[in-house]
Design goal:
Blueprint lengths: L1 H6 L9 E6 L6 H21 L4 H24 L1 E5 L2 E7 L5 E7 L3 E7 L2 H7 L1 E8 L5 E8 L1 H41 L1
Antiparallel strand pairs: 1-2, 2-3, 3-4, 5-6, 6-7
Length: about 190
Amino acid sequence: MLANIFFRSYLNQGEKIYFVAHTHPFINYASFFKALVLGIVLPLGFNLIMPPFFVIWMGWLAVGILLFLYELLDWYMDAWIITNLGIIDLQWDGFFNKSSTRIEYHTIEGVTYQIQGFWGTIMNYGDIMIERLGTGTVVTLGDVSFPKTVGREVLKYQEKFVKAKNYKDQTALKDLLVQMVQENRRGQ
């Protein structure tokens, strides 16, 4: 539900979100922790120690909450959105600097993932790469949670898309052949 609210502006008409892949929160723990401690816990602690400066501490707390929400939004909006039509790679670098790249399922040549290092293995995060057909370009989402699962999801929905497209193409071809045979019979 949250994904439909935040990502609806990136979707085409009739497009549905199946899966959203984010970077592992462990990668951003330092910025989350800093915003939480310096922006929320500290002003609350100072308010308990020195209540006469309530206004200062609440102003500090308000800025800290905004900073924490910004860090959370920055993490959430850097994502891959796997839809029924393709994959949307979102890069969010603030409210006024964002970009998206659409990768259609029929242009995907391969999906690979790579887990490196001790923490990547323990926390199960790594890079997932999609190679685009013909161009040889690679689109990467770094430090994604459960990269093997994300790779499977991409391949599963790609297969579903290809089957639906083939069925639609077969139906159109069959209708065209039936129409040609009927016209041929009328002509004889």
